[in-house]
Amino acid sequence: MKHIEIEAGSVEEAVKEALIKLGARREEVDIEVIEEGSRGFLGIIGSRLARVRVKIKETPREVIERTVREIIYAMGIDVSFNISQSGLYWNVDFEGPDVRLLIGRRGDTLNALQFIVNMIVNKRLNERVHLILDAEGYRRRREETLRRLARRLSERVKRTKKDVVLEPMTPQERRIIHMELKENPWVFTVSEGEEPYRKVVISLKR
Fold this sequence. Notes:
single chain; alpha+beta; Defensin A-like; GMP Synthetase, Chain A, domain 3; Ribosomal Protein S8, Chain: A, domain 1; 3-stranded antiparallel sheet; 6 helices; elongated
């Protein structure tokens, strides 16, 4: 992260000088006041310069990349990744020899990693961003599986007239179920429970 420390007669003077040297605007930086400074007695005796540390803010992409690299390094697995943005969402797509280790059973590892990366990135940015992690198209295949499951279970509810409670899913996976059955004339869906154990319930329309 590019940063600079500057001493000047006042905090404002130090900040202005730092912005000039960094070639940045005030809204593009984080400012840390190390020393407020003091004019001292008669403006001479005991005076101290103000000292500030000014850092250029990282972009969401930079924070995401740094966070993912740190976690992958800590896991000790051989994968590469690509970052892209689609609307309000940031997508991180993995590939490589160890990519299956990232998926886990029914995507459990991938979902856990997605939760951790979202938490760290949002804390580091101090703003809300949404990340979706995928591994060689796993989520696309998972989406197709969930859509088929939703249709099959809706037929069971229609036939037996009994509710069906699905296994805990991520918000993205629950949304797939809800959207698939949104226009179904026989059933409706609701989500129940607390994260990360929130589930979709499919019920017969009365």
